[in-house]
Amino acid sequence: MALHEKDMIRENLLDDVYASASLAHSLPKYRIPDTEQDPRHAYSVVHDELMLDGNSRQNLATFCQTWSEPEVHSLMDECMDKNMIDKDEYPQTAEIESRCVHMLAELWNSPEAANTIGCSTTGSSEAAMLAGLAMKWKWRAKRKAEAKSIDKPNMICGPVQICWHKFARYWDIELREIPMERDRLIMSPEEVLKRCDENTIGVVPTLGVTFTCQYEPVKAVADALDKLQADTGLDVPMHVDGASGGFLAPFCSPDLVWDFRIPRVKSINSSGHKFGLSPLGVGWVVWREKEDLPEDLVFHVNYLGGDMIDFALNFSRPGGSIVAQYYNFLRLGKDGYRKIHTACYETAEFLANEIEKLGPFEIIYNGQMDAGIPALCWKLKDQEAEGYTLYDFANALRSRGWQVPAYSMPANRQDLVIQRILVRHGVSRDLAVLLLKDMKRSLDFFEKHPDHASLAAEEASGFMH
Ligand SMILES: *Cc1c(COP(=O)(O)O)cnc(C)c1O
Predict the structure, then answer these.
(1) Fewest 10 Å CB contacts: which of 79, 261, 353, 459?
(2) Which residues cross the membrane (predicted)?
């Protein structure tokens, strides 16, 4: 080898990443490059671009986990190759999934926790899809048995997360979404009853409504449906969307009756990656009893001797976040979950009190345990008087990295704009105080520069929606 070639190779090996020849120009963005890159160089390029995403810990919009213990990182790494669908290949991962289902059934007071039926999913959206399908199948079988028409199924809910709009559209269900009315921002038993008929496949209350974070009144709705059945014979089942609340209420509001203690509740979904404290990619759905999940929707796997069901929209799917869910159950126990979530509720209430003291805001939901999830939301007392909007305020906070979303309500309160903070594991009291300081700073700025506020908003509005 010629001397100069050796020098060149040595030089390449020792190159500082950012002084390397391959990073001396921008890499192609919309076509695969022709040649290979040094892994360190490619890593730096990708890693650095991700900086522009912002800091997830300051994202107070998301319900999902943004902090995990080092042990969870290790398990996720160890499970990179675990394919959840290969229950034969990875029987222990499948066994762990099955244990989690039983633990959740017990947590949600299933009458038959030891003999329960349920599965993991990629999140609550897939779980909702599966639970919704089960409701549709059950309704259809009943209608067929009575020789009645099956072409107009409907489902009743309050202001729901988008996954239920998807479910309704994909599977041809009429969604009877109860509109908001003045200060009533969630479903009420009266409004549910008005919409029930023989084509109702189910009523779906949400435990932790996306817009305001409040719990819908599951028990009161169930009682109303009991009365409806007594009066008319109409028997309408319920599914609870406990995407957030399913991992909160059992620990922090044990006296709130919302789960399988109510016989009418036939299934429950929850997001492991929200208040289940697991990394992204896991949700759960559990049915009250085996009969609540129609047989012909389910594919059975008998490799494990037990009753391992395969009911999913995906085939291959990563196992790591399911394993991490199991780790969390063992690591934290019920006490640990209660402690973490209680700290979040206390910080939410603290923030609600302090934000109210700032002056211009009226708190709509203050993170009160038993009423909703550890979160808070507010509106402007008088938008005209202030000369800025909540979109302006969100944009001002964004300049310090905080993502505190402002958004308008669905029908019939599209006029109402609110702003919301989710207090999750890792949103510490100290961080909350730093946020409050930035809130005060932004309001002071608006006061001194009234013209700047709305200008900034116009630029931001596209992005904020
Ligand atoms: C987040 C959420 C969903 C969707 O859950 P994913 O786990 O994100 O798929 C559904 N319903 C409610 C109430 C939610 O908060």
Answers:
(1) 459
(2) none
Domain with residue 261: its CATH number is: 3.40.640.10
Closest C-alpha among 275, 333, 344, 285 to residue 311: 285
Q: Residue 38: which CATH number?
A: 4.10.280
Q: What is the DSSP letter of 337?
A: H
Same domain, yes or no, for 132 and 274? Answer: yes
Indicate if 112 and 223 belong to the same structural domain. Answer: yes
Domain end: 329, 363, 396, which one? 329
Pocket test for ligand 1, best of 160, 274, 282 (most atoms within 8 A of CB): 274
Instruction: Evaluate whether residue 387 is within a structural domain.
Output: yes
* Residue 17 CA, ligand 1 centroid: distance in Å: 41
Choose which residue among 64, 210, 218 to substitute to test ligand 1 binding: the one with the highest number of ligand atoms within 8 A of its C-beta. Answer: 210
Which residues have any ligand 1 atom within 6 Å of their CB?
A: 63, 123-125, 161, 163, 206, 208, 210, 241, 243-244, 271, 283
Query: What are the average pLDDT values for consecutive 10-residue runs of the chain, which has 465 residues?
Result: 72 82 91 94 96 95 97 98 89 94 96 87 98 98 97 98 98 98 97 98 98 97 98 98 98 98 98 98 96 91 67 93 98 98 98 98 96 98 90 96 96 96 97 98 93 61 45
DSSP 384-427: HHHSS-HHHHHHHHHTTT-B--EEE--TT-TT-EEEEEE--TT-
Query: Which residue from 13, 45, 15, 44 is spatially nearest to 28, judged by alpha carbons?
Result: 45
Atom of ligand 1 nearest to the CA of 271: 7
Indicate the burial class of 151 (C-beta count within 10 angstroms; 0-12, 13-18, 19 or more).
exposed
Quick check: is 60 in a domain?
no
CB 164 within 8 A of CB 126: no
Domain that holds residue 301: 72-329
Output the CA 124–ligand 1 centroid distance in Å. Answer: 5
Structure token pair of residue 120: 């993991």
Same domain, 371 and 311: no
